[in-house]
Amino acid sequence: MKAPIRICTAGPADAGIISRIVERSIKVGCAADHRNDPKVVAAWTHNKTVEHVQPWLADPRLYLSLALLDDKPIGVAMAAVSGKVAFCYVLPEWFRRGAGQALIHGLEAWLLERGFSQTRLNSTRTGEDFFQHLGFRQCAQTFSIAGLTAIPMEKSLTLPS
């Protein structure tokens, strides 16, 4: 029997693993978005270092969570008190196994607890189908940022039944 994925709040000691998960997810899992262009990869990852992650973990306006499988971190997600999902990254070898879905559901619960009835995010082309599967819909025109296509998406939040 496969162990369940557990979601927990990230802490200061998790900055290194968060940085590594995000970088690997971008470099390997999002290759269709950046087309292995070193400049695009560098632009996307330059602010995902341990030094950048540490202040996020200390910022009370942000919520970072980890997806754990057998106590091993396999994914990370972040939301803000503004109601926006900032990101959701999973190690490529764990794509399509429920970690991303569990992370997003955890962020949605966190946002609902803070009174939000809707959330927004910017997806890449790689993530678009995933977010649509979770109920997100495109809400504005796509735009380009750092050599990537961003797709603005939104979702109404409801309490689980």
From TrEMBL:
PROSITE patterns: GNAT. It comes from the Bacteria. Residues 21-158 form the N-acetyltransferase domain. GO terms for molecular function: acyltransferase activity, transferring groups other than amino-acyl groups. InterPro entries: Acyl_CoA_acyltransferase (IPR016181), Bact_Acetyltransf (IPR050832), GNAT_dom (IPR000182). Keywords: Acyltransferase, Transferase. CDD domains: NAT_SF. PANTHER family: AMINOALKYLPHOSPHONATE N-ACETYLTRANSFERASE-RELATED-RELATED. This is GNAT family N-acetyltransferase. It comes from Pseudomonas frederiksbergensis. The lineage of its organism: Bacteria, Pseudomonadati, Pseudomonadota, Gammaproteobacteria, Pseudomonadales.
